[in-house]
Design brief:
14 helices, 15 strands, binds zinc ion, alpha/beta, disordered N terminus, globular
Length: about 425
């Protein structure tokens, strides 16, 4: 079934297997000499996916009477019926042309526009309430931009067992960053990294964080090339990892079949990250044309997180306020240039710290950058689905796709602001 794929390869590997294989690749003697020993036998006993998997919970539902919009084609169908069974769309089309099964619960969508559930391609979900807020605001699927202590791995499972509580999540585990801080307590196999004077910088330290993430069941790897823009005391144009270090991270991820998303701001940083082989560039305010051309050539995605930058404007901190005002127009220009060059864009809110921004707001910002309303909508549906490897599963309201829908109060192509506050959300056939 489309929406309940087999567990990712990592989930079928034991933690011990993943770490032993990577230690062998790294050369165990070198690892011991540096003080980062191989994983202990005791911790190697746990399974990657956190034990036995329970069956996914899904629903049956008929959504009828709304105006259905397919972002894949731009087609609009009035008085539409969508039939969802076992969490999957079995039929969608004009009333009278769709067989409606007897006895299935109905959701009246008269006066509403019906769209596929939206995708937030960059969000930090550390708590139950963040998961619920993202879902309520229409993000039925999301990609994690890392969590402090592997909460996203469990949120992914929460979405399977209780789709009414969390978006379907592509998990990143913990951030591959020089200073892990308290995150070294996220796993016993990260603890040796606490002793490294310069932080996570050597090839083996970088590999270790990637390998522990994969052993814990991460679907993707998150790293950075620049510091944060949202902290006044950090300079987001400094470079924290070199091209060589980024290449090491990408290679380690690739050994496990995983892609890398990279937090980036400076043009040199963006260029180093893209040429190191990342799958998606995150933020990217100063990305230049040479790097966009490289992204086009390599098929690298761009997740500009416009809302996160716009959110700094009006900050009490004058440094952040100024940064927001400087970066936002540059980032909008970069997003539009990317779009025109054929670089694929994905919408991401970069929500974190208890405040979840509606993914619909990011779609509006994409439109304000110069994308058509339909193309802007695609950044949070078909475009983001492709980035998450969910093409054919997520992002369109058609037969065989996930039974994920948002109902909004008007025509989003005439006024995208309706996406900010869906009137109903359906996830895996379960209406919230
Ligand atoms: Zn982020």
């Amino acid at each position: 079934m489309c929406v309940d794929p087999a567990p990712p390869p990592s989930a079928r590997l034991t933690r011990r297997g993943v770490l032993a294989a990577s230690a062998a690749l790294a050369g165990t003697a070198g690892a011991l000499a540096s003080g980062i020993g191989p994983a202990s036998a005791a911790s190697g006993a746990a399974t990657a996916a956190g034990g036995a998997r329970r069956p996914a919970r899904t629903g049956d539902l008929v959504v009828e009477g709304g105006t259905l919009l397919d972002p894949g084609t731009g087609d609009v169908v009035e008085d539409a019926v969508v039939v969802i069974r076992d969490g999957v769309i079995r039929a969608a089309g004009r009333r009278g042309r769709v067989d409606v099964p007897e006895g299935t619960p109905r959701l009246d969508a008269h006066g509403r526009w019906v769209l596929p559930g939206l995708v937030d391609a960059h969000i930090h979900i550390n708590t139950m309430s963040e998961a619920a807020d993202a879902l309520r605001q229409g993000a039925t699927s999301a990609r994690s931009g890392s969590t402090n202590f592997y909460q996203d791995i469990a949120v992914r499972e929460l979405a399977r067992q209780a789709p009414e509580l969390a978006p379907r999540l592509t998990a990143a585990g913990v951030f591959v960053t020089p200073d892990l801080g308290d995150t070294v307590l996220g796993d016993p196999d990260l603890v040796p990294l606490a002793r490294l004077k310069g932080g996570v910088r050597s090839a083996e330290a970088l590999r270790r964080v990637v390998d522990v993430n994969v052993a814990r069941g991460a679907d993707v790897i998150k790293t950075r090339v620049n510091p944060r823009a949202g902290l006044a005391e950090q300079d987001p144009l400094e470079q924290v990892y070199s091209h060589e270090q980024l290449s090491e991270i990408v290679a380690a991820a690739k050994r496990h079949g995983k892609g890398v998303l990279c937090h980036s701001y400076s043009e040199q940083g963006c260029h180093d990250a893209v040429t190191a082989g990342i799958r998606s560039l995150e933020h990217g305010a100063f990305v230049g044309e040479r790097t966009l051309a490289e992204m086009r050539r390599r098929g690298t995605f761009f997740t500009p997180t416009l809302g996160a930058i716009a959110g700094m404007i009006g900050s009490d901190d004058p440094v952040l306020d100024e940064r927001g005002r400087t970066y936002l127009p540059l980032l909008k220009k970069a997003a539009l240039a990317a779009h025109r060059m054929g670089v694929r864009l994905a919408a991401g809110t970069d929500s974190s710290g208890g405040v979840v921004d509606p993914i619909g707001g990011e779609v509006e910002l994409m439109h304000s950058a110069g994308l058509s309303a339909l193309d802007a909508l695609r950044t949070a549906t078909t475009g983001a689905a492709e980035l998450l490897g969910l093409t054919g599963t997520v992002g369109r309201p058609v037969r065989g796709f996930a039974g994920d829908l948002v109902l909004v109060s008007g025509d989003p192509l005439a006024d995208l602001s309706v996406l900010r506050a869906p009137t109903r959300v359906v996830h895996a056939g379960i209406a919230l």
